[in-house]
């Protein structure tokens, strides 16, 4: 009698003293809110509508993820360079921010499987004679600082050894500079390029060519050690494709046509 | 505090690049101060001239430079002038933007310094047969620069710190630009910006300390 009483007491004390290690996934579900970092000057992935509400592919993607988790989504606006500080300082739980999954970055943050893939276009000022992407050699070119295409383009300019590379802070500034003729050409995702040529906000620009880059696979990111959450998000991305939601969001934000295939033939993930 | 493992060795490998960036930062600060001081003296002369149009120019300059953000001024040099077909490189946009800001603040410093110099000195100089320009150049200006020497070093520190605003005009060779470029590649945000902050601190500290030494030597009474 006495011993069993003691045993129950010890057991109870142990349960109180050693709660199961709660990870980020638990924290999100317990708090009832999923905080996503989204870049909102990167249409069609993220932007604001006339009433200043966040909209776009990434915004919907975050909402879907929150719905799957059974929590409410909170969109935290971020810039490309601010993604990591907001994650590390715990201001957001994940970044749904078109983050290219480079090996260099994977040393610091945890990437899921790709949830989207961009192809990039070369866009030029109409007054500049350009026929192919290689005509960028020797010209003044620029792109949005901190993006995959900016890193690629800067590398090309260094390789060519002539011309100038300028990293502007936002996609809007890149197109403003291009429209004014401060830049001869830029490399931007096909989605963004087409949206900007169509919108008429930046007169005097034209799409010249596709940029010969490896497709820019982008993934969701969170802290590197949050395997539980990464696992969950991998399955979530798989389900988005499986259920047709991926194609639906593509049609809603990007346009007609097939969204990019997210698998790479000939290799396991 | 937060979930981050500092990996200093990787970030320290970038130190040579960042130091090169620091040189560009100092170059811009020094040039912008040289241009700023020159323009500020001209603006001060405009104010002293008693010609209404000229003092209006000086007043407008000072008002805009002191009452709008430096970020805005630099942005306008690049994109504002760009709208009129005047295309300046990021380097020039940043330099001109900071010089514009410096000139406004320094002109105001000079005005304060002038108030500390008794007006009778000008009259005395004039009565010795100096022209107004000579009186300003030989008697007033040296004292004005001496009185405003320490405020000038203040502005120099500001100029160093303002170079980080060059990012809005795509400046990527200065200390901030180099750092944020490295950050985009590696995501080692905290190490890189901590190193940049230390470099900024050392530069500005060196400026204030050496200014004090110079002042102690030059301005001994």
TrEMBL record, chain B:
Domain ABC transmembrane type-1: start-end pairs: 22-211
Species this protein is from: Albidovulum sediminis
Keywords carried by this UniProt record = Amino-acid transport, Cell membrane, Membrane, Transmembrane, Transmembrane helix, Transport
Q: Please give the start and end residues of each transmembrane region.
A: 22-46, 156-173, 193-215
On the tree of life, the source organism's domain of life is Bacteria
Membrane disposition: Multi-pass membrane protein
Q: Quote the Pfam families the UniProt record gives.
A: BPD_transp_1 (PF00528)
- UniProt family annotation: Belongs to the binding-protein-dependent transport system permease family. HisMQ subfamily.
Indicate the principal place this protein occupies in or around the cell. membrane
In terms of PROSITE patterns, this protein maps to:
ABC_TM1 (PS50928)
Q: Can you say what this protein is called?
A: Amino acid ABC transporter permease
Subcellular localization is given as: Cell inner membrane; Cell membrane
